[in-house]
Specification:
Chain A is mostly helical and 260 residues long. Helices cover 85% and strands 0% of the residues of chain A. The radius of gyration of chain A is 20 Å and the shape is globular. The chains are: A mainly alpha (260), B mainly beta (413).
């Protein structure tokens, strides 16, 4: 598995896309800092970017990589190798190289700008951690979609639909249901609702840092326990881990049974 | 000649009265062993010096104009039995005592020091601990409360008292006091023309500062931090609030400042930082908000209703989750020349003001007012989209609530 991981990783490192991705984040970091002159404001803007763009790039890139390396995968399958190690290796290769582009691309300009001396360092590292989580989650989801769809166009379609659903439509439905059922106690439902969507989940994690004073304005005991203590942080991280483990295990399960 | 005689006369009188004023020393090994004894012995305008030591006394009644000075903080231990010092005479100075163990009662408000119906008193450099009420001014006038340290141990609201309480008092100066862990740090009821200056009031159960029916008061340079519900100013007129700091008042009913039925006030140069709600305004009219900083609050300003002709000029709104929240779509307040960190416009004519107006009320804040649980969707992409569409054509938020001259850069003064 490590060999395949290494191969995928180096293959991606040499590919143009990783550089484009890296350059994009580098540029974003530099421009944000140049325009804002303020680390804490840049962190807020960055949150929007990470929550929207990282999942999108993760899904598209994952699907693209799977379809592009299909012939190579079939070649590998002819060798005496475990299927799980082939797919896991490829998945980790993609996810790690994407996360590296993200962390380096955003990290470098901020470090040069004097991040270590700033109080925003914790907010910023939380951003990078959730960004990495999101990359792993959405690459895994993308591999799942690609494994289940032989047709490339269909695969891409589903991938974009998945992103659109989780990033925007889900919140719309969520908001509507909260407003519709406003007569009922909703705090458990609303916390549960965020757990079901990795984008919402990582947003909540960042909110815990940035908007804690607003969040504590709400009167629910469940909310208070969730936001007021480190309980919320722990639960969110566990849920994020689950969001990686479930798609990955489905990917392995599916790949073992798939007829290539 | 006549004038010279008069002068001489005054001089002699002054000299004589000075001669008359003697000093009584109280210590554990002196002739006078208790403060009560010393007060009984003293005549008007005497000085009582209390040496270092512990004095188990309560119910000390100061009924003559005296100066009571503690040397190296003598401890007066009330033994939880009742009120400790009660001043009922004019011209009394109490200085440098350490008062501990004030009694708790549900029928009478026992205080460490109570000043009752008198004038020209000074209470300074006191340390009060384990108290019910700290300094209680009742129908007092023209006094000073300076540099006291009040450290309470309040846990429940119903069985704790206030740090400094003013009731029907006039023209009092409260300066450089440090008040922590009591119910209300400073409480004013029916007290006019008072100045509250450079105090620190923190970690109190209810309010850092509480105004009720008190007019023409000034408070400036105070710091209010981590109080149960921040600062409340209610039913008062012509209050001036300058350069105070309101910080970290977190909770469901917690405000940096709560204004209720306040008219003609001035709120200038204050800093509101990391409060759940910076200022909560209800039924307040003709208030000028100028040069204030609102930093990292949940809601910088929450307008509940019945607020007319208020003006918000040249304030900085920095990184608040919500800048302003309104619960109606009628607006009679003016917002002008503020800096909003959420402003996304441009300044093509380079005059320092943005070319398109800023709308500080977002649709989402309206939704959160209606269904509080939706707060969990804060900063989601979907919310940004609906906020944007509301910004383009306002339906739910007040149409005319906008800052026509939003500053492009943070305002410095």
């Amino acid at each position: 598995m490590l060999k395949i991981l290494k191969y995928s990783f180096y293959d991606l490192m040499r590919s143009r896309w990783s550089y484009v991705y890296f350059a994009f984040y580098l540029l974003l970091g530099v421009v944000l800092l140049f325009l804002n002159n303020d680390l804490s404001k840049a962190v807020i803007t960055l949150m929007n970017v990470i929550i929207v763009l990282v999942p999108l790039i993760g899904t598209i890139f994952g699907v693209m990589y799977y379809y592009n390396s299909k012939e190579f995968t079939e070649l590998l399958l002819a060798q005496p190798l475990k299927r799980s190690s082939i797919f896991l290796g490829q998945y980790l290769g993609v996810a790690i190289s994407l996360s590296m582009s993200l962390v380096l691309g955003l990290g470098l300009p901020f470090v040069f700008y004097g991040l270590f001396k700033s109080s925003a360092i914790w907010d910023f590292s939380l951003l990078l951690i959730t960004g990495t989580f999101l990359t792993f989650i959405f690459t895994a989801l993308a591999f799942n979609i690609a494994l289940s769809n032989e047709n490339r166009i269909k695969g891409f379609g589903y991938a974009i639909l998945l992103w659109l659903f989780l990033a925007i439509i889900y919140d719309g439905i969520f908001l509507m249901s909260l407003i519709l059922f406003e007569d009922y106690p909703l705090d458990k439902l609303s916390l549960f609702g965020t757990m079901l969507n990795p984008i919402d989940l990582s947003r909540t994690l960042i909110l815990l840092k940035l908007d804690i004073s607003a969040l504590l304005g709400y009167t629910g005991a469940v909310f208070k326990q969730f936001f007021g203590t480190s309980f919320g942080l722990v639960v969110s991280f566990v849920a994020l881990l689950l969001w990686i483990l479930l798609p990955v295990s489905r990917m392995i399960f599916k790949s073992k049974r798939k007829d290539f | 000649m006549n004038r010279l005689l008069k002068l001489l006369l005054i001089f002699t009188f002054a000299f004589m009265s000075d001669m008359q004023a003697s000093t009584i020393i109280v210590c554990n090994s002196c002739k006078v062993k208790s403060i009560k004894e010393a007060i009984a012995l003293a005549s008007d305008n005497d000085t009582i010096k209390i040496k270092k030591g512990t004095y188990k006394e309560y119910g000390i009644l100061v009924d003559k104009p005296l100066t009571i000075i503690g040397e190296e903080y003598p401890v007066i231990d009330g033994g939880l039995k009742g009120e400790i010092i009660t001043v009922i005479s004019d011209h009394v100075t109490v200085d440098g005592l350490f008062i501990i163990n004030v009694g708790t009662s549900y029928t009478s408000d026992y205080a460490a020091i109570r000043v009752k119906k008198c004038k020209n008193f000074v209470i300074q450099n006191m340390v009060l601990e384990k108290l019910f009420f700290g300094i209680y001014l009742e129908r007092a006038r023209d006094g000073k409360v300076l540099s006291n340290k009040i450290i309470g141990d309040a846990i429940e609201e119903y069985n704790s008292g206030n740090g400094i309480q003013l009731w029907y008092s006039k023209n009092i100066l409260i300066e450089n006091n440090y008040i922590v862990n009591v119910r209300d740090g400073i409480y004013l009821e029916f007290s006019d023309d008072c100045i509250i200056k450079n105090n620190v009031s923190a970690n109190n159960l209810r309010y850092g500062l509480h105004f009720m029916f008190s007019n023409n008061d000034i408070y400036q340079g105070n710091t209010f931090e981590s109080n149960g519900a921040g600062v409340a100013v209610m039913f008062s007129k012509k209050i001036k609030m300058y350069n105070n700091i309101f910080k970290e008042n977190w909770g469901t009913a917690s405000y940096g400042m709560l204004l209720k039925e306040i008219n003609d006030a001035e709120i200038i140069g204050n800093t509101f930082e990391e409060n759940t709600i910076g200022i909560n305004i209800e039924g307040s009219n003709r208030i000028v908000y100028k040069n204030n900083n609102f930093i990292n609050n949940g809601w910088a300003i929450k307008v509940r209703g019945a607020c007319y002709t208020n003006s918000f000029l040249s304030n900085n709104f920095l990184y608040n989750s919500f800048d302003i929240s309104y619960n109606s779509n009628i607006n009679d307040n003016v917002f002008d020349k503020n800096y909003w960190s959420n402003y996304t416009g441009y300044d093509l004519d380079k005059n320092g003001f943005g070319d398109i107006p800023y709308r500080p009320v977002k649709l989402f804040s309206y939704i959160v007012n209606r269904t509080p649980e939706t707060i969990i969707l804060l900063r989601s992409l979907f919310i940004d989209i609906i906020d944007f569409s509301e910004k383009v054509s306002p339906v739910f938020t007040p149409d005319n609530l906008l800052d026509k001259n939003p500053k492009m850069k943070k305002i410095e003064w």
